[in-house]
Design goal:
The chain has 395 residues and is an alpha/beta fold. Helices cover 32% and strands 32% of the residues.
């Protein structure tokens, strides 16, 4: 009986693949789709109770004289994101497909109004993925940024990809996807830290018909508290945040060497550990310990720095700098009144029993909690040379 059932299922599947009708959904040619790569969400400026959706796609057409590229943007407002994007679909010649969206931009006004109100669609919709990167547009709307930063020569997705690549060597941002944002918001405080971007005037580029009106730049991190925008990490606090959350892959650090000249260090390896210290069931202190290894990338003096004295001095100054940026980030986080570093999760993993006794008072406990930093700093190499050009001392 079992064999008959299996044979019947195989025959059914074979029959479904033949004839005029198919058992499976009917496919469509890819050229019939409009592949949207960037989606912007704003609070409508004309009607604040409504949501405005902006879509960006690149249309490539082939012809006898060669291919051509057209940048297409379209916007629509409605009571919800779902309805707005459905309304947009009815106005397009091609089928608007959201499965290719790589970037989700949320305007500052929307993030300040209610982040989840503009974000929930992307958690539920079957067509969107959980891998697109999320950004908050600092000081403006997603619509304005999308419309002014793309052209046939420079496309917005390329600029955003450059920001992601730059973060790996500058430590000035991080890669946060929809799934990461969901996990951050999945707590009682609704706290999340999301990379921010902004539009800026073009620099060192001659504007022409093929150039975009504006450029795109990283703008620190947007801090979401109680599901609303509370403010931004900017300046030195951005790098401090990345060190505290163990997200630094590499970054330059400039210090003064023993001669007083500027010297560049390249961070090549870091590791951040967190230690919670209790007295009985009371949390008294938290220590962030960062182990960092760097290389001597450039020096402006003609002093030999690869001596015990020179390296010790550089290591000390590197540690002081990293401690200062982490202190700035901790101070900002306490000003926001929210745990921006997922510290609660780390304490919960280290001390699950004790955490149960303090979890209900965590929001009140965190702003006054003593948080110390410690940096174990090593300058491990000097690349190709140990002696600088023009060095006249002894070997």
């Amino acid at each position: 009986m079992k064999k008959i059932t299996i044979i019947s299922l195989v025959l059914l599947l074979c029959l479904s693949l033949t004839g005029c009708k198919s058992f499976f959904p009917k496919g469509k040619e890819m050229e019939k789709y409009d592949a949207v790569t960037v989606m912007g969400i704003d609070r409508s400026e004309a009607e604040p109770s409504r949501v405005e959706v902006t879509l960006l796609s690149k249309v490539e057409k082939s012809g006898d004289g060669g291919g051509s590229v057209t940048i297409k943007t379209s916007s629509e407002s409605a009571p919800t994101v779902f309805e707005a994007q459905r309304n947009l679909r009815t106005k397009e010649e091609k089928v608007t497909y959201l499965g290719y969206v790589d970037y989700l931009l949320i305007g500052e006004g929307a993030a300040a109004d209610d982040f989840t109100k503009y974000f929930d669609f992307f958690v539920r919709d079957h067509e969107t993925r959980l891998s697109p990167r999320v950004y908050v547009v600092k000081g403006g709307t997603a619509k304005e940024l999308i419309e002014t930063t793309s052209s046939t020569k420079i496309f917005l997705t390329d600029q955003l990809a450059n920001i992601i690549n730059g973060a790996e060597i500058l430590g000035n941002s991080s890669d946060t996807k929809i799934i990461d944002t969901i996990n951050q918001l999945d707590g009682k405080t609704g706290a999340a830290v999301i990379p921010a971007i902004k539009s800026k005037e073009l620099e060192n580029q001659k504007r022409s018909g093929e150039m975009a009106e504006k450029d795109v730049a990283p703008a620190g991190f947007a801090v979401i508290k109680d599901f609303r925008l509370a403010g931004y990490f900017d300046g030195s606090a951005v790098l401090g945040y990345d060190f505290l959350t163990d997200k630094v892959k590499s970054c330059p650090i400039s210090v003064r060497d023993i001669s007083g000249a500027c010297t560049a260090l390249e961070v090549v390896n870091t590791k951040t550990d967190v230690e919670a210290k209790f007295e009985g069931d009371a949390l008294k202190k938290v220590l962030y310990r960062v182990t960092v290894t760097s290389a001597l990338a450039e020096q402006q003096s003609r002093e030999r720095l690869t001596t015990e004295e020179g390296l010790t001095d550089l290591e000390r100054k590197q540690a002081e700098y990293i401690q200062s940026v982490m202190t700035d980030a901790i101070k900002e986080s306490k000003n926001f009144g929210t745990d921006c570093f997922a510290l609660a999760e780390k304490i919960k993993l280290q001390h699950p029993v004790k955490w149960e006794k303090i979890k209900d008072s965590w929001d009140k406990l965190y702003p006054g909690l003593e948080i110390d930093t410690e940096v174990v700093s090593t300058v491990a190499r000097s690349y190709e040379i140990n002696q600088p050009n023009g060095y006249k001392g002894e070997d």
